[in-house]
Structure formats: C-alpha cells, structure tokens
C-alpha cells in the first residue's frame, strides 16, 4: 500500500463519515446529499456515471443509497474503499440506534422541532439534485416524456414494484429509440474499474449461496446467531423499494418469535426516523435489543452483507455492458426515468411529510438559497435547518 492509496482511503472515510452524520431524510435525500458532495463538489464521477450507478442500485434489491455509496467508494478506492465508504456512512446511525436501544427508545422524539427542520433540509437537498440531474439527463422531448411518465406512475401507483417496473419500461423505450445513436464513451474514472469479472462472479456466487444455504443451516442447527444471521440476511437480500419496505419484513421475523415486543419494535422505528444515515440501521436497534451492542453490530453486518455483495459483484459486468450502444441507449431511458422518480419522491413522501405551513416553506426557501446561491457547505445548511425547525415549531 502506497501513501497515495492511504490518503485516498482516508479521504473516503472523512467524506462518508460527514455524510453519515448529516444525511437525514431517507434514501432519496441521501442520493441528493451524495450528488452534492461526490459529484458537484468533489467531481469523483460525472453526472451520467452517477445516474447510471443510481439506476443499477434501483434495479438491485437492498438499500439503494447505501449501495450507491459503496459503489462510489469501490470506484474511488477498490474493495477497501467500498468498505470504508460503507463504514463511514453507516456507523453514526448504528451507534445512535444502539444507544437508543440501551437508553432512549421509550422517548417520543419523532415530532421534535429540530427533526422537522432536518426534514425540510431534505426537501432542499433533493430539489437541488433534481434540478441538476434534470438539466443533464432530460435534454430532449423524448427523455422529458419518459421522466413525466415515471413521475405520474410512481405517484399514482405506490407499491414496492412500481419503481422497478417504471425503470424496466424506460430501459425498453431507450433500447429501441436510442440504440442507433452515436453515444459518447464512458468517463475514464468509471471505465477503469478496480475489480475483475472473475472476482465479481465469485462475489455473486457467495451472495446466492448464502441466500439458499442459511435457511437450511438454520433448520439443522439450534444456534441463535445462525437464526439471526438468516433472518437479517434474507430481509436485506429480498427487499425492493427502499428502506421502509424492510420494516414489515423485520417485524414478521422478530415480533412473532418473541425476540422483541411490538412496543419495542415501534419505539425503535420512531428512533430510526430521528437519526441520519440509512434506515436499514433499524436492524442495529433490533440486534441491540436481542443481544446488546454485540448483537447490534452483528445485525448491521448481516442485513447489509447482501447489499455489499450485490453491488460489488455486479459492477464489473455493469461497466462492460455500458459500452454496448444498445445498452447505453437503454440507460439513457433509465436515467430519464430516475429523474421522474426523484421528482415523485420529492413530492411524496419528502414534501408531504415536511412542508405543512407557510413557515415551513419560508424556511425551505432560506435553506435552498443558502445551498444553491450562497454556496454554503451542506453541514451548515443542516445545522441551520435544525435550528430553524426548533424556532418555527
């Protein structure tokens, strides 16, 4: 390991940890924070490469925002970079929710003024990201129409499968409409991917092997940690549609079995809304209730493991597919649909759960100006949002 590699890993850790401490508002808001930090400020990827990565993570089961963060870390610093990026973004909320399990899960904090202020920050960040992505990814009437279609469908048909259906239809349209166009080559930062296809195939084999082998191992053994690993791994591997979808899966796995009471489960859900970072870290809370802080860390590892295996195993093949003109045409359609999906999510649930009165809108306007026009750092905007939320509440 040379000095430059160590500096790269340290930079990834510092940036991802800061995002893990300040990224409130759920997976769509996280993508906005990532866009602002990784693409707009640091230029680690271009707009199209980022949108392609987001599209891939929307296709895959698991926590999309965490997978995007892992993917950026891998592209920047190899597998170690991906692990560091995951740790930095996830650990703050893991620690917070384990502490909730020990001390605070009985307190009702989800309606606190400063949390409402952070929700308004999420509105601002996503709106800014949507503006930038729409300008670059929907330049013609065909892609604007795809984005509109994605917006309407995901607003009116809100299920776990609506997003993946819209993305598949947009890919089909782009495949046929743009396949004969002369498209630009891939950005060099992404084309020089640090993982081989052989390693990617091995990682995908491990993913599917664990998915099918763990339930069998659970049935033939009586070890509690195997049962926990199986429950968390399956929940993380089979969820489509974002972090909120994992909650009913976890409830089915842990409440009927008596590992956690319904009251404890609901208290932890409230706590999960109050911390930054991925909602999947709700598993950390459950693990801490079941087995203390060690259980919390084990649960975190188990529920995020399939997401890590999927994104790292798929990226080497994804990068090669993007060189195919027909596939690149499909991605043009997919990228346009992602813009529509983000606008849909900006309205619901982000706007509808954050902007309730003129004071909320006024605070959003001030925060938007701070971020977009005054070019203040995101952490300053987050802090201002928390203070503003307390004042207007």
TrEMBL record:
It comes from Oceanobacillus piezotolerans. Signal peptide: none annotated. It is found in: Cell membrane. Pfam families: Chromate_transp. The keyword Cell division does not apply. The lineage of its organism: Bacteria, Bacillati, Bacillota, Bacilli, Bacillales. This is Chromate efflux transporter. The chain crosses the membrane at residues 12-33, 79-105, 117-134, 146-178, 199-217, 232-250, 271-291, 297-318, 330-351, 371-392. GO terms for cellular component: plasma membrane. It comes from the Bacteria. Keywords: Cell membrane, Membrane, Transmembrane, Transmembrane helix. It is a multi-pass membrane protein. Belongs to the chromate ion transporter (CHR) (TC 2.A.51) family. GO terms for molecular function: chromate transmembrane transporter activity. InterPro entries: Chr_Tranpt_l_chain (IPR014047), Chromate_transpt (IPR003370).
């Amino acid at each position: 390991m040379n000095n430059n590699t160590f500096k790269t890993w340290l930079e990834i850790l510092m940036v991802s940890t800061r995002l893990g401490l300040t990224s409130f508002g759920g997976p769509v808001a996280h993508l906005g924070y990532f866009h602002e930090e990784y693409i707009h400020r640091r230029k680690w990827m271009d707009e199209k490469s980022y949108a392609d990565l987001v599209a891939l993570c929307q296709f895959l089961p698991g926590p999309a925002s965490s997978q995007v963060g892992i993917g950026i870390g891998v592209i920047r610093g190899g597998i170690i970079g991906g692990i560091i990026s995951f740790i930095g973004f996830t650990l703050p909320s893991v620690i917070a929710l384990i502490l909730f399990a020990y001390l605070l899960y009985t307190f009702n904090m989800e309606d606190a003024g400063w949390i409402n202020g952070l929700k308004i920050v999420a509105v601002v960040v996503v709106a800014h990201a949507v503006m930038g992505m729409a300008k670059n990814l929907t330049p013609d009437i065909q892609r604007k129409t795809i984005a509109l279609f994605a917006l309407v469908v995901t607003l009116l048909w809100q299920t776990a499968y609506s997003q993946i259906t819209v993305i598949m239809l947009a890919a089909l349209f782009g495949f046929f409409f743009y396949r004969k166009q002369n498209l630009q080559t891939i950005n060099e930062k992404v084309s020089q991917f640090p993982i081989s296809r052989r390693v990617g195939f091995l990682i995908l084999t491990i993913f599917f092997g664990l998915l099918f082998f763990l339930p069998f191992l659970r049935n033939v053994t009586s070890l509690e940690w195997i049962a926990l690993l199986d429950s968390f791994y399956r929940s993380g591997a089979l969820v489509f549609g974002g972090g909120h979808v994992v909650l009913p899966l976890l409830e089915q796995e842990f409440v009927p079995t008596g590992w956690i009471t319904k009251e404890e489960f609901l208290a932890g859900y409230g706590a999960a809304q109050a911390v930054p970072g991925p909602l999947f870290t709700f598993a950390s809370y459950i693990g801490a209730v079941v087995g203390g802080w060690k259980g919390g860390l084990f649960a975190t590892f188990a529920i995020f493991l399939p997401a890590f295996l999927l994104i790292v195993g798929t990226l080497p093949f994804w990068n090669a597919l993007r060189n195919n003109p027909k596939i690149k045409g499909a991605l043009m359609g997919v990228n346009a649909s992602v813009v529509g999906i983000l606008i849909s999510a900006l309205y619901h649930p982000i706007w509808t759960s954050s902007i309730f009165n003129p004071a909320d809108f006024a605070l959003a306007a001030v925060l938007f100006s701070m971020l977009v026009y005054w070019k203040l750092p995101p952490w300053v905007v987050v802090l201002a949002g928390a203070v503003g939320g307390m004042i207007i509440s």
